[in-house]
Amino acid sequence: MLRLRGIVKTYGDRRALDDVSFDVAPGRLTGFVGGNGAGKTTTMRIVLGLLTPDAGEVSLDGRALTAADRRDFGYMPEERGLYPKMKVLEHIVYLARLHGFPRDEATARATALLGRLGLGERLRDNVEALSLGNQQRAQIAAALVHDPEVLILDEPFSGLDPLAVDVVSGVLQERAAQGAAVLFSSHQLDVVERLCDDLVIIAGGTIRANGSRDALRAAHASRRYELVSAGDAGWVRELPGIEVVRFDGGYAVFDAESEEAAQRVLRRAVDQGDVASFAPQHPSLAQIFKEVIQ
Q1: Per-residue pLDDT at 280
Q2: Are 170 and 139 in contact (CB under 8 A)?
Q3: Do 2-218 and 220-293 show the same overall fold?
Q4: What is the CA radius of gyration of the chain?
Q5: Fewer CB near the terminus (10 Å): N or C of the chain?
Q6: What kind of architecture, by CATH, is found in domain 220-293?
Q7: Rounded CA separation 40/212 (Å)
Q8: d(CA 171, CA 102)
Q9: Comparing C-alpha atoms, which of 142, 65, 72 is closest to residue 106?
Q10: Reported confidence tier of residue 207, pLDDT bands at 50, 70, 90
Q11: Nearest residue to 69 via CA among 177, 149, 179
Q12: For the segment 52-107, what is each residue's pLDDT rounded down to a tens digit?
């Protein structure tokens, strides 16, 4: 378990991070979201030892994080850091060798990983010859080739087309399933919502929301419901305590002032005829994000 507690970082009179605390659990994907300047990159750099906090502690499995621990982390910075004149396979093999793998194993690991990321036909190309999206895939391979137990990714989906996002998402899910603790930041809230198990929202250097995706959605849910029935559902508008948001024949989305009001709708729908579905609507990550940073 990677754990941050009470992290504070100031630059002159500006407090960039104020009591930042959250966990990144093994076997789970933790999405880290916030606007530009919210403190995401500063937090990640403190975890990696690239910056020193003014207060607080980062620990791993209950002990203070050491330089030796950090050398085994996988890190992908937002800025691309590959050598442009090196060939793609040569570069990833080189990085695996730096982590102690013999050449044959390093080559096998790099070849398999690059193939999984869709770069199998570009192994002999120089990094600078790749598109920006393919350079991003190579950067991800650089962070993963040594099978890190902790993976820190700053905007890993930047510059990727939808198919590449799916490929990279699949690779990250595989690593989490193998037990890695994965922390990734992204401005693409739809991708974060689809991919993450846990979510941390930061704004102005403070944590505004933190927990499992499902728990946060439940905590921020309103009493909004969706009804799909076989008959006309216009009667929903006549019931007390109900405000219809959308309506089309047998389809209605409505806000209920109480659980009892919602149950009245359900009972009436059952009496009226077949009910195809009746369920509360959970807020999207974008809606939660807007709510907590205000």
Answers
A1: 83
A2: no
A3: no
A4: 24
A5: C
A6: 2-Layer Sandwich (3.30)
A7: 18
A8: 24
A9: 142
A10: very high
A11: 149
A12: 999 999 999 999 999 999 999 999 988 878 999 999 999 999 999 999 999 999 99
For 250, the token pair is 């047998």
Question: Domain 2-218 has what CATH class?
Answer: alpha beta
Q: Are 7 and 54 in contact (CB under 8 A)?
A: no
Tokens standing for 51?
A: 């910056």
Segment 131-163, tens digit of pLDDT: 999 999 999 999 999 999 999 999 999 889 999
Q: CA–CA separation, 52 vs 226, rounded Å?
A: 49
For 164, phi then psi, to 5°, come to -65, -35
The C-alpha atoms of residue 281 and residue 79 are separated, in whole angstroms, by: 38
Local structure of 147: helix, strand or coil: coil
Percent of the chain with pLDDT over 70: 100
Flag whether pLDDT at 222 surpasses 80.
no
Structure tokens, 150: 């902790």
Q: Map out the domains of the chain as residue ranges.
A: 2-218, 220-293
N residues, the chain: 294
Q: How far apart are CA 282 and CA 171, in angstroms?
A: 28
Question: pLDDT digit string (tens) for 264-292?
Answer: 999 888 888 778 888 888 788 888 888 88
Q: Compute the distance between CA of residue 21 and CA of residue 205 in angstroms, rounded to an integer.
A: 11
Helix (H, G, I), strand (E, B) or coil at 78: coil
Tell me the C-alpha to C-alpha distance, in Å, between residue 291 and each of 38, 134, 216: 16, 35, 12
Specify the 3-state DSSP secondary structure of 46: helix
